[in-house]
Here is the input.
Amino acid sequence: MTILSGKCLCGQVQLSVRGEPLRIGICHCTDCRQESGSAFTFFAIWPIKRFEHHGEIAEFDGRCLCPRCGARLFSFDDREAEIKLGILSEAPTPLTPTYELWVKRREDWLNPIEDAEQYEEDRW
Here is the structure.
């Protein structure tokens, strides 16, 4: 089974996920842009049973981050964990987005991801 791991900028928070993700996406919504400080967020979703994290975390509006370095890390509930893929130790990652959200907010200079589903807003 594949194991991917990552950590925050200062190394205080570590995480790992096992197996293939349920889905892999890119989001261009205003919240993701502001939260990441970039034009989009690259993330994947795993079942909560295949996700582990260690170290002290802080939370804002359901999003977990390192209280020391401020790195945005993940969010989770009792079913799933959404991991910010930029924090994985392996770069580039072996993961390819299968969908894009909020493409109506995508920068004009960014091309759609080939073969990925495109959603004007959310998937539902």
